[in-house]
Amino acid sequence: MSWIQRLEKVSEGHYVLPKTKTMRVDADLFLSDKLLYGEGPDAPGLEEAVFSQVVNAASFPGVTRVAVTPDCHVGYGVPIGTVVETDGILLPTAAGYDIGCGMVQLKTTLTAEDVADKQKRRRWIDEVIHRIAVGVGASRAQRQRKVDARTFSEVVRHGAKALGRTNSTTERDFIPVEDDRVDIPERASGKRDQLGSLGGGNHFTEMQVDEEGRVWVMLHTGSRGFGWNIAKHFFVEGARALGLNSRSEDFIWLDAETKLGREYWNLHNMAANFAVANRLIIGEAVCAALEEVFGGTADIYYEISHNLIQKEAGKFVARKGATRAFPKGHPSLRKTSWEHTGHPILIPGSMETGSAILFAEEGAAKSIYSVNHGSGRRLSRGEARRVLRQEETDQRMAQAGILLNTRTTPLDESGPCYKNLDDVLETVEMAGLARVAHRLTPVACIKGAD
After folding, report:
1. Who contacts 408 (Cβ-Cβ below 8 Å, separation ≥6)?
2. Rounded to two decimals, what is the model's pTM?
3. Start-end of H helices in 163-223
4. Which of 282, 295, 350, 424 has its CA 20 to 30 A from that of 263?
């Protein structure tokens, strides 16, 4: 029997994979028939390898629930687009290497008409790059904020609060570091100067226009080398503690009450706080660049993570490439500005097809209050470089009027590399998890050049 044949359809957009093999719990998969079975080469179905990773996610000690989001695709250990709820167990593999990676949305006073001039958009790109560092390994080029040891110590312990951001513009002010005496691994401590820098790969800063002609800016980046090296440290140490070889990241779990578990939790939280502060610092630089070039102003609308473990209702909830989705009335939103609407959910698609802002529905309880974090890759980076043509890709971007900071379009980040965002958003709404509030079209994109 194939994996797909094992699935039980609950309702439109919602399947269940019953316990099989080593699974301790059933797994809920939020997929449309189109995303599951596919509709030709431009809309392929779900990769077979995803299912064995779902089994792995549901097989860890302490697991109580597993949910898989519509953008799911093969990752490391568990699929990207997976939520795992556990009782007393921490899963480094379900937080991943880029701990705290996530989004910031800036809402501006500008309109599409204000940014219609391509030369001014090009100037804006140059101004942003002047103010932040861009790309893999980039260090401090942020001109407006020097990060000394004391400030860095405050940032990794108090995140947004250390920057004076304590209102409802962030998913949380900070994640508490419960033991201030924890030592930061040497391999991570040297990455302080990456605070205020944009990572490579799929990380970006993008100017967008919504359906009403309002200009927004979306940022995507994480904890940079700081978080990556913390994750690597615990993948090595966790494997050693479990008697596994050093390449067994897929199977590592930590008891939260052990010394190693407590160390991971505290350092994971430091990386998460770094990531939030990193996004806010970049956001401030982008706002300054907008004012410099266009004369308009911008404010941080919302900030949220999608690679993170958080404590919710007494359990650990690990979201690997998945976004928290609390609807109106959720206890965690009490006394915030989102109490009566639910908080915004920021969903990047691709630099060709655009992005979206959603708000959760009551049905999000079915998916452990989570939805997808993007549209989901369908071509690996290597495959994209093999099968896509540079000239055609550049022509599509030019015809769409989308400006880039790179000389040519990165093929491995172009539109065909990702699933159709509208198919994914349709599934989210079909399953009753969230509703789309804004659909955003890109007009200028800054990518971390690898």
Report:
1. 390, 394
2. 0.94
3. 186-189
4. 282
